[in-house]
TrEMBL record:
Polar residues compositional bias, start-end: 336-353, 688-699
Cellular component, GO annotation: membrane
Protein name, UniProt field: Protein kinase domain-containing protein
Main location: membrane
Transmembrane segments: 283-307
Signal peptide residues on this chain, from the entry's feature table: 1-50
Keyword Cell wall biogenesis/degradation: no
Highest taxon in the source lineage: Eukaryota
InterPro entries listed in its UniProt record: At_inactive_RLKs, Kinase-like_dom_sf, Leu-rich_rpt, LRR_dom_sf, LRR_N_plant-typ, Prot_kinase_dom
Keyword annotations: Leucine-rich repeat, Membrane, Repeat, Signal, Transmembrane, Transmembrane helix
Cited PANTHER family: LEUCINE-RICH REPEAT RECEPTOR-LIKE PROTEIN KINASE FAMILY PROTEIN-RELATED, OS05G0588300 PROTEIN
Domain Protein kinase: 387-665
Recorded GO MF terms: ATP binding; protein kinase activity
Amino acid sequence: MPRPRSSQPWPQHTIRLAKRRRTRTQMAAIPPRTPVLLLALAVAALGCHAVEPPKQERTALQSFLAALPHERDLGWNSPSAPSACLWPGVTCDASNATVVAVRLPGVGLAGALPAGKLGQLRGLHTLSLRNNRLFGAIPADFFALPLLRSLYLQGNRLSGSIPPDVAGLAALRHLALYDNHLSGEIPAAFAGLRELRLLRLDGNRLSGGLQSLSGFQRLEVFNVSDNQLAGAVPDSLERFPPESFAGNLRLCGEPLDKPCPSPGGGVVPPVQEKKRKRLSGTAVAAIAVGAAAGALLVLILLVLCFVRSRRDDAAASGDDRNKAPTPATPVRGHTLTPSTVSGEMTDLTSSKEIPSAAGGGAAEMMRSRLVFMGGGGYSFDLEDLLRASAEVLGNGVAGPTYRATLEDGTTVAVKRLKNVAAERQEFASAVETLGRVQHRNLLPVRGYYFSSDEKLLVADFLPEGSLSAALHGSSGSGRRPMDWNTRKRAALSAARGVAHLHAAHNLTHGNLKSSNLLLRHGDPEGAALSDYSLQHLFSPPPSSVQGSVGGYRAPELVDARRPTFKSDIYSLGVLFLEILTGRSPTAASTGVGDSGVSSDLPRWVQSVVREEWTAEVFDEELVSLDGGSAEEEMVALLQVAMACAATAPDARPDASEVVRMVEEIGVRHGRATTEDRVQGASEEEEQSWGTPTGTGATS
C-alpha cells in the first residue's frame, strides 16, 4: 500500500532549526560573547534550507513533463512547492542537493519519451515510468546515468531495440522492460551488468538467443517469456522455472525439458571435449571410394525412377484412362486435408483429430504452400503440419479450431475456415493485412494456407483457454472462479484490442464474444481477441454467418459480414455485461438460461436496474468472492457497458473513450490519489510489483 503523506511537509533540518529558537528572555541570558556565533549558525541553517537541486535539474524535470501529455496535474509548477524536492514523484538526497529518484507510475503520461531531459539528472538512482502510455524508443540518455540502480519502464508501448548503450548502467540492479513492444536481439552489452538482481524482459518481441545473459550469477528474478527467442538456455539460467522461458517456441534445453536439435537433426548430446585426430591416408581413400560408390548408386536410382515415371505416364494415357481411379493411400498421421469421399469437410467434432488426406485433395495441398507472415518464429512447413496430431478446441460458425502439436513439440492453433467466398488473391491480401496487426490484446495471425478445398489460418496457441470457458465452464473441469480484478482486466484487454483495430488499422472485429477472448497465464491484462476482421471473406448467403455473434450482435446490423465500429462497441458492451452478470448472452437471448428470460442481456439488465435492483445484476459467484468490496467499481463498469449497448449507434462511445473509462475505474472509487501513489512508490514496492510468481524475491 502507498505510505500516507507526511504530516510534516518541511525538511527535517527546518524542524531542527525551529527547535533552536530562543525567547527574548533566553537570549538576554546568553553571555555577550556568543551573538556572533549564533548569527553564523542562523545564517548556516538558513543556507541549508535554501539548498535545492541545481537549476538545470529543475528545468530538465519541467521540460520532460511539458514534452509529454499527461492526464493529471502533478503541481510541479505550483507556487506552494518552491523546491523541486517537494514535487510529487521527485525524491532528493538528504541535503536536497540533487534529485535521486523520479517515480511517476500510472499517472497517464502519453507519447514518445523526450530525449536529453532526464539524462541531465546525473545523481539519479531510481527511475519509474511504468504503466503509462509511452511509446517509441527508449532515449539513449537513459543509459548514460552512471548511478542508476533501478529502471522500471514496464507496461507501456515502447518499441525499437534495446541499444548497446545499456552497458553504461554499470550500477544497475533492477531492470523491468516487460509488457512493451521491444524487438531485436538482446545486446551483448548485457554481459557487463554484473550487479543485476532483477531482469524482466517478458511480453515483448525480442529475438535471437540468450547467450548474452549467460554470465549472470546474482540474478534473483528473471523472466523472458512470451518473446521470439531461440536456441539453448544457458547453464547459468537453468535454475529459473520453465515459466520464465514460456512462449518462446524455439528455445530448448533445461529447464524446458526440450532437448536441443543438433545440426544433423538429432538431439544434442551433453557437451564433451573431444580430441581431434588427423585422418590417415587409408581412411581418406576409403572415404573417397565410399562417396563415389554412393554417388553412382544415387545416379542409378534416378534413372530407374525416370524410366518408371515414363512407363506410368504411357499407361495412364492408354486404356487405363477409362478405368475408375484406385483410391490413393492416405498420408500417414493426422492431417488438415478434406476427405474425398463426399467432397465435404469431414466432421471432426467426434473424432477430436484431424483426418488424413486422400486422393486429389492431398495432391493439391502439396502443390500449394503454407505462407508465414513473420513475427512468430515458426519454421515448419506444410508437410510438418500434415503429420501433426490435433485436438478440437471449438467449432464456431467460421469453422473449427484445432490445437496442432508438431513432431518437434511446437504447438499452434489452426482454424479451418468454411464457406469462404474470396478468391486466392483477395484471401491472401486480407490475411496478410491481419498479419501486420501487432498488439498484445490481439492474437496475431502467423500464417495461412489456401486451396480450393481448404483455407487455414495459423496462430499462436494460448493454453489458458477463453473467457467464456472461465466464466461458464463447469467446476468439474478444473475451472477456477474469476475474481473481480481478473474480470476487470479482461474487460480492459478487450477494449484495448478493439481500440487498436479501429484506430491503428481502420478494421472492425465483427465477431466479438467471450469465446474469442483468450486469456494469458499470469497476465490478466494480456487477454487477446481472436477471429477478428474475417467476416467479409465468407459466402454471400449470411445464414451461417448472421448468427456468428448471437446475442452480441447490434440491433441495426442486418448483414453480419459488414460490421461497423459502432456494432463492435455494442458487442463490447454485451461482453462487459457478461463479465458482470456471469450470464451467457446467447442463452439469455433464447430464453434458455438459468434466468429463463426471453429478452436479450442488455434489455434484461435495463429492466432490473429500472426496478432499482442493481445488486441483483451481478454474478453471485463474483459477489461471494469479493464480498461486496468492489461494488462501486462493478457499478461503474455496468454504466460503461450500458452506454456501449445503447440501441442508437450514435449514442455509443468510441473505442478509445471506452478504454479511458475502463482505465479510470478504480482511480475514482476508493483508490489512492495520484500524489499518494507517486509519493508512496518506494523501491521495495516497485520490486514487489515487478516480481513474477514463482521466480523468487529481490533483496
